[in-house]
Design goal:
This protein has about 80 residues and is an all-alpha fold. It is about 35% helix and about 0% strand. It starts with about 25 loop residues before the first helix and ends in a 21-residue tail after the last helix.
């Protein structure tokens, strides 16, 4: 089994990659049910959508929400021209 994030080969079926430390539990779940979705009754499209939603959650977790400054934090700047 290989890590999909760094490509390092995994010797044991652990929940995390020993090289990059990413969560690879979903690979262990796929190995238990088989590589095809026929064993669980799920189609390939459903498995892909599940994988995509997991990846989307991981991606969004890395972003910080922008904060808008309140009126109390705004500074008044006076510009004189001429």
């Amino acid at each position: 089994m290989y890590c999909p994030f760094c490509g390092q080969q995994q010797a044991s079926k652990s929940a995390f990659c020993c090289s990059c430390g990413k969560d690879i539990k979903f690979l262990c779940d796929v190995d238990k049910t088989g590589t095809s979705g026929e064993a669980t009754g799920k189609s390939t499209l459903e498995l892909f959508r599940t994988f995509r939603s997991i990846k989307e959650k991981e991606r969004r977790a890395g972003f910080k929400k922008k904060t808008t400054p309140s009126k109390d934090n705004l500074k008044v700047v006076k510009i004189s021209v001429g």
